[in-house]
Description:
- InterPro entries: GAF, GAF-like_dom_sf, Sig_transdc_resp-reg_C-effctor, Tscrpt_reg_LuxR_C, WH-like_DNA-bd_sf.
- By secondary structure, this protein is of the alpha+beta class.
- It has three domains: 3-170, Beta-Lactamase (2-Layer Sandwich), CATH 3.30.450.40; 189-286, 2-Layer Sandwich (Beta-Lactamase), CATH 3.30.450.20; 289-364, Winged helix-like DNA-binding domain superfamily/Winged helix DNA-binding domain (Arc Repressor Mutant, subunit A), CATH 1.10.10.10.
- The protein is built from 14 helices and eleven strands.
- It has helices spanning 3-14, 20-34, 63-76, 83-87, 96-99, 108-114, 150-170, 204-210, 234-245, 289-299, 304-314, 319-326, 330-344, 349-361, and strands at 39-45, 52-56, 93-95, 119-129, 132-142, 189-193, 199-202, 215-216, 253-258, 264-274, 277-286.
- It has a six-stranded mixed β-sheet with strand order 3-4-5-1-2-8.
- Helix 1 (3-14) packs parallel to helix 7.
Amino acid sequence: MILSETVRRLERALRGAAGALSVLDRTAEVLLDAVPADVWCAVILDPATLLDTGGQHAHGFPEGSMRRLFEIEHVEQDDVDNLRALARRSGAASLLSRSTHGRLDDSKYYREILEPLGLADELRVLLRHGPHTWGLFVLCRDTHSPPFSPAEFAAAEALSVPACAALRRSLLLSGVDGVDSRPLPDAPGWVVLDGDFRVRRMSPTAQHWIDQLQEANARDGMPDGGSGPVDSGHYVLRALAVRARDETVGAGAHVRAPTGAGRWISLRAWPVEQGGEPTTVVSVGPTEPAELTPLVLDVYGLTPRARQIAQKILVGRSTGEIARDLGVSEYTVQDHLKQVFDKVGVRSRRELVGELFFRHYLPQLAHPPLATDGRLLSDPSPPPRG
C-alpha cells in the first residue's frame, strides 16, 4: 500500500475516536497492518515526566519483565534508545538494531529484556508534538520474523503524526455529564505496594480513581501470591513506584494522568520502610487546578509566546498590560491572541476563559454542591474518603 494511502486510512480511522485508548487501538490496527509485530504495546505518557500514565499492554511484554524494564527505562535511563534519549532526537521512530549499528549486545535493554524473550529487534515510535512527547508505540519482532524494512520504518514514522494529533485531541474531552449521577470523591486515596511492586492495600477512593485510568493489561498480570487490583492502573502504579524507589529521586515521583472521562488525576509515590521491607505509598486524587494550566495549554499546541499570553488572559490582564509585561506591541499581542482563539476554537476572551474553566478547571474544584466534574450532586451523602 502506498504510504500516503496508509496515512489517509489512519486519519479516517481516527475520526470520532473517543478517549486515548480508542486512539491507540485504532492506530494499532492500521500501524500493525503496515508494520506487523510479534509483541507490541502503546503507552500514554505524561509529557512533563515521560512516565507511563496508561496505555494498551494486552499484547505487550510478560509481567515478569516489567520491573526490570521500568528500571532501565525510568531509573537508569542510559540505554541507547531510552525514551528520554529518543525525545531529544529529531525523528519520531527509532530501530534498536540501527541505533546500535548492528551490535545489539551493546544494549543492556536487548540483553536483559528482548533476548531472553526471543525477540530480535524493537521499533519505537514517538507520538510527539514539538518538544512534548504524549505517547509511544513499541513494536518487536522475534527471531523467526523478517527484520523491519526501511519502508516499514518510514510508514511507522509517518503514521505517528496523525496518531499524535488524535491523542492530543482525545485529552481535551469534556466530562460525562448525565452518564453517571453518583457524587465523585474530592480527596486523594492511597495505595501501598510491597517490595516487589505488588499492590497490597488500596483505599476505596484510590480504587475509584485508578479504575478510570486509560490502561488495558493482560489479566494474568500479577505474579503468584500477589493481591489487589491487576487490570486497572497496574503498569502506571508500578512505573511510578520504580521511579520513586530510585534513591537519587529522594522526594518521590509525581505524574499526571488523563482519565477516560476527560479529567486529570495526580499520582505521587514515596518510598518508605515498614518492618524492614521496602514499601511504596502512592496517593491518587484529582489534579489541582494550578497544575493544569501549562498542561492544558500544551495540549492545544500553543507556541510558548501564545501560551504566555493565554495565561495572562486567564488572570484578567488587558492587551495593554500584556504588551507592557512582554515588551511587545499591542498589535503583536492581538495577533498571538487570534492564534490562541483559532487553536482553542473560540472567538473571544470571554469564550476562551469559559472554555478552559468549564472544561478543565471546574471539574477539578471540590466545591459543594458541585461534584468534581461540575455536575450538581443529586445525592447529598458524602463521597468515599481515603
